Amino acid sequence: MMEYEEALRNILKNTSPLPAEKISVEDCIGRILREDIYSTVEMPPFEKAAMDGYAVYAQDVKNAPTNLRCIGLIQAGDMFKKKLNRAECVKIMTGAPLPAGAESVVMVEDTSRRGDSILVSKTVKKGENVCFKGEDLKRNQRVLIKGTALSPAHVAVLAAVGRRFVRVAGKPQVAILNTGGEIVPAGFKLGKNRIYNSNGPMLQALLKSDNIEPFFLGIAKDNIRELRSAIEGGLKNDVLLVSGGVSMGDYDLVPEVLASLGVRKIFHKVNVKPGKPLFLGIKDKTLVFGVPGNPVSNFLSYLIFIRPALYKMLGYLYCKPEFKEGVIERKFDTKTGRKHFVLAKITKKESQYLLMPMASHGSADIIALSKADGFMIVEKGCSTLKKNAKIKFITWKTI
Ligand code: AMP
Ligand code: MG
User: Fold this and answer.
1) Nearest to 107 by CA among 77, 44, 64, 45
2) Which parts of 317-389 are beta strand (E)?
3) 3-state SS, residue 206
4) Residue with CA nearest ligand 1 atom 17
5) Is the pLDDT of residue 156 over 90?
6) From the CA of 179, how far away is ligand 1's center (Å)?
7) What pLDDT band is residue 121 in, cutting at 50, 70 and 90?
8) Which positions ≥6 away from 367 have C-beta within 8 Å?
9) Would you state the pLDDT for residue 187?
């Protein structure tokens, strides 16, 4: 059976960034930039006022308080046609170009006005409250690097250099199929021996949290015919997630159906708990994950196996899961022998993470999952962890 690290290597080896696409700047949040962006403009493009106030010669207000004669007003977007002479000032609004000759701006708060006479109560240095031409950005300067995960501030940069469109990594089309004769969608009557479909909505929510619009294929019963037709449709996507039906039960038919449809198995089973029956296969450009049906296994599989593949397709430069380190707050014993992911409450004390393993009824316990902050990881072969021992963990929260 494959160890976790080898399984992850195999997943990433069989995944590549999708071809880039051109999209509008307003829609690029969360996408990965596939080009370097160079500025076509200078910022600011002219010398401008950083404050509302009066444009002056610095020398003229050196001995403030002092009086200057106001000869006009410039608003943002306008130009003052005359040159400023000594002992004169011009009222100026933030963002307006400085009149010829002016060196500084006195804040309006530091002045009082009577007619055209302005009493300046405070001195200003040369260049004070002025933004200089090109001080933020030079023409042809690289402003964003290929591989950047685009945020709202990056949108501002793109817009400021006049871009309407931008090249980003493509988004994978991901389909989800739930399997199991016992699984019923919410909104339907729950018959005897049935349970509601929690994995379907959860996987859709996880995909949405990664900025991917999922395609839900519904629920297939555990028979070859239904599985085959649903999976066949799902193979048209970049990624197909088939949840349930990959374990050792008599009705765990997914691997068999995948094989009959020409999906090449890359691995089946990973030495982890929970989530051991994970299946990975590939057909043409479609990556297929068979995800163990227990909800906590489903969730963990997304974090440590599926998300890294999606991140690679989305063009992230770093797509592996982030494992941090903390200390365990109590002694912990495990008998699994596998790499064991244990739900934990996580707190932070003086920049150290503290992990408290949670009581849980096992990998179907979604209530425990909903209260947990992450999984702590007991390495393979480790049976006892002493209190305060170092331990790795993965979290989906900001702690
Ligand atoms: P399986 O992987 O199909 O053997 O399922 C393992 C366990 O997870 C069984 O107890 C299933 O009833 C449960 N299960 C499978 N699929 C779902 C689902 N979509 N929502 C909730 N529980 C599920
Ligand atoms: Mg099942």
Assistant:
1) 64
2) 324-328, 332-333, 339-349, 352-357, 374-378, 384-385
3) helix
4) 293
5) yes
6) 8
7) very high
8) none
9) 96
Residues paired with residue 385 on neighbouring β-strands, in sequence order: 332
Short-list 132, 119, 112, CA closest to 50: 132
- Model pLDDT, residue 361: 86
- pLDDT of amino acid 300: 98
Region at 116 (left for phi over 0; alpha for psi -120 to 50; beta for the rest): alpha
Over the stretch 331-376, which tens digit does the pLDDT of each residue have? Answer: 999 988 999 999 999 999 999 999 999 998 888 999 999 999 999 9
Residue 210, Cβ neighbours under 10 Å: how many? 17
CA distances 240 to 32, 49, 399, Å, are 22, 56, 32
Task: List pLDDT tens digits, range 11-64.
Answer: 999 999 999 999 999 999 999 999 999 999 999 999 999 999 999 999 999 999
Average pLDDT of the chain, as a whole number: 97
**DSSP SS3 for 183:** strand
Peptide bond into 274 cis (omega under 30): yes
Tokens of 84: 């400023």
Judged by DSSP in three states, 316 sits in coil
User: How far is 48 from 55, CA to CA, in rounded Å?
Assistant: 10
Which residues form ligand 1's pocket by a CB distance below 6 Å? 178, 180, 182-183, 195, 197-200, 243-245, 247, 249, 252, 292-295, 364
240 Cβ contact list (under 8 Å, min separation 6): 174, 175, 177, 231, 234, 286, 287, 288, 289
Q: How many CA atoms lie within 13 A of 300 on its CB side?
A: 34
Q: What is the mean pLDDT of residues 158-172?
A: 96
Mutate to test the pocket of ligand 1, among 183, 206, 248, 299 (most ligand atoms within 8 A of CB): 183
